[in-house]
Records
---
Amino acid sequence: MSAVLRLLSAGPGITVQDRGRHGFLRYGVTGAGPMDPFAHALANRALGNPAEAAAIEISLGGLELTSEGAPVTIALAGGDFQVMLDGQALPPAVVARLEPGASLKVRAGLAGVWSYLAVAGGLDLPYVLGSRATHTRTGMGGLKGRMLQVGDILPVGMATSEIATGRIVAPLLERPAESIRVLLGPQDDYFAPDQIAAFLAGPWTIAARGDRMACFLEGPKLSHNLGFNIPSDGVAMGAIQVPGEGLPIVLMADRQSTGGYPKIATVIGADLGRLAQARPGTPIAFRAVSHAEAVLARAEEQSFLSGAIPIEPLVRSLFSPEFLLGLNLVDGWVDARAPA
């Protein structure tokens, strides 16, 4: 019998995401995909899946699910979330086996906004325009084009091999948001040099009204040297628009396909997840880098993902003195963090 995942509880904002729906922006179709592309790919690669396989993107609302029909091997990666398997605390980045009837609970923890739950064999859902990514505003992809909810059943693909379980060792997940690297442009010429300097100096704070479409920033208002309207052009994830009010908006995974405000800079690919994982109220700063540095940072991620993902057995990590000292009770959940 094939395995399925059944959702027992689900907070808002939980969707199925693969790497995204690419090649259709010229038709007005957004890419969607994960808010934290590296964490999404890491969870998949830890299971031997293709990095682009569909996984569950878990928001701060958390979820609880169970396996039915057959055992399922799952991997979690992303924010520092609380993870419980049948009452036992697990690290936030982990590979574990989910037996039929077992309960896996994932809740917001000390840090981060998104966690990714991948399954060995991937989620076996229909493709829409070559992708399983959910875009809720258009009702496209995922499960019926919507957020996941209690009672949903997700079919699991066939795993091809045995997979080691344990804590995922990935230093690249530890990415504080204090400094976000950007490439200036493509319309930085719409801003005088002192405004570019003000943008880089900040300080900026993540506003509470952000979502999968955009991250709003609070801080000093920027002024435009050549006005704030441009002919609409295509926008990439990470593009930083500055509308007439002067407060930057970073366009994220569910962004619109085009935009008509000047883009002062663009977050580099390797730092998209770092920004996405920053909770409202987090102070951040931007640092301009060269194209070569941006390429090098992305190459570092890809090099890690293309190798064997290190998995540390839980028998060692769960009972080491460092791990036991790291146990904290947070809102009734055990914060089980293995040693770095």
---
Amino acid sequence: MENKKALTAPCGLDCFNCDIHENNLTRELTEFFHTQFGVPRDNIACKGCRQQGGKHFHLPQEGCATLNCVKTREVELCSYCDDFPCALLAPTADKAAQFPHNMKVYNLCRIKKVGLESWIENEAGEIRKKYFTKPFAVGKGQAD
């Protein structure tokens, strides 16, 4: 549990369920990133944003602005900030089918409601699975 707490990004993403996290990365995905984007194989596995200081090939070179913000504000998660939610968490349609960035605010709200441990144990994996596999239904969110 402690490891999964540390692998919950300040923005609410569940790094422990991410396909490029070092515990989940497959040879096939490593080869895909290496071949398609020229990323050296040794640089593809991610340990989580907190463990890597917000620096990884998939993040801006200057690092993660959200991680820098929570460090400055001395909060563990964005939902513990007085300015939550803010523009750093704003959803976008761009690449929504490839990256889970639109789950952030929902995840943070659920963490605030049920607690981090309960969210990790009971919700995080299911939320991510639904995000990438369930169709959207107007007025309902996810279709049944």
---
Amino acid sequence: MTRSGRAVRWIFACGAVLAVGAVATPVGAQGSRSAQERACSHDVSRHCRRYVSEGDMAVYQCLQNNRERLSAACRRVIEGN
């Protein structure tokens, strides 16, 4: 897979993680979506990169499984969902 193809899949997976969060987020707080994306993007690339091709829920489950290893900001996003 090309580098750009991996980047597109990774961005899609980050969006999926955030989409799950948006469902559980109050309407007024949904503007913070980019902040949530920034909070978890490094953790997805560090801990869950291999699950990006498996779909959104696989990435989300990976983040859940690695909760103790995540940055504090991403952990707050994940625990808020």
